[in-house]
């Protein structure tokens, strides 16, 4: 068996078409153009690429975007002042500070400084708290994108054994919370594995749906999964460069061996990545709608 490929590129395109209509309506009926500020601190090459993709997506959809590039040795105080300014700026409905931040900056303080109404990443403790108890809020983009991928690919999650590998605040913990809730792409029985899990393969072999977000290539190989599993690979690892100088990307899952046993799998690139960006656009539009 060779797995069906779940194309995040295709599904994100469908969602973008839906969002375009919402943006036109917001502009024509309410005179509101959604606006996103993206803040990049330092010059990490991967972060630069991600912020560039987010800006490009804004411009393709007709979302106003403002990019702020800051030096890697900026003080926390200066960054907090910038956020304060963006919180008050009426053209800006969403604020995205690309993570990770340099060592001298306390990430948690920065996230807490963002107005929860503009926290389109869904990282502010107020939004995380609301998410956990199932209240309306901005959902973190990657986990929300994963749920949309599953729902729009017709994957049944109700009663499914979902195994998540990786306990980050950005992916593992929120996706665990969302998938156990009574909601679309929810109602699953969820297990979360991490670096101290005793027998990772024992858990991954039980999974009907396996979500891998560890940040390490080949965390999961073909011998660690059961026939017919649906695999969502969240990883983006740069393992070298092509002779033309383009980054070679692989996920956290050993695609070649796992695809022989899986019913469906997301590729890297072209799987979860495009979904994260489109969910950020969706949250930015929602933030703008919330102001009318
Ligand atoms: N770094 C890795 N993923 C993300 C994300 O979704 N948002 C932000 N702000 N930083 C990230």
Walk me through what this model shows.
- The protein has 292 residues and is of the alpha/beta class.
- The protein folds into 2 domains: 33-115, 3-Layer(aba) Sandwich (Rossmann fold), CATH 3.40.50.10860; 141-273, 3-Layer(aba) Sandwich (Rossmann fold), CATH 3.40.50.720.
- It contains 10 helices and 11 strands.
- The protein has helices at 8-30, 45-61, 76-88, 107-113, 125-132, 141-152, 172-180, 200-204, 255-258, 272-289; strands spanning 4-5, 35-41, 64-70, 94-97, 161-165, 189-193, 209-212, 230-233, 237-241, 247-250, 264-265.
- It has a 6-stranded parallel β-sheet. A 3-stranded parallel β-sheet has the order 3-2-4, sandwiched between helices.
- Helix 2 crosses helix 10, helix 6 (141-152) crosses helix 7 and helix 6 (141-152) packs across helix 10.
- The longest helix is centred in the N-terminal third of the chain and has 23 residues, at 8-30.
- The protein is globular and about 50 Å long.
- Bound molecules: guanine.
- Guanine binds at residues 96-99, 121, 141-142, 170, 276.
Structural topology:
Elements: E1 4-5, H1 8-30, E2 35-41, H2 45-61, E3 64-70, H3 76-88, E4 94-97, H4 107-113, H5 125-132, H6 141-152, E5 161-165, H7 172-180, E6 189-193, H8 200-204, E7 209-212, E8 230-233, E9 237-241, E10 247-250, H9 255-258, E11 264-265, H10 272-289
Parallel strand pairs: 1-11, 2-3, 2-4, 5-6, 5-7, 7-8, 8-11
Antiparallel strand pairs: 9-10
Helix pairs in contact: 1-10, 2-10, 6-7, 6-10
The protein binds guanine.
Residues 96-99, 121, 141-142, 170, 276 line the site of guanine.
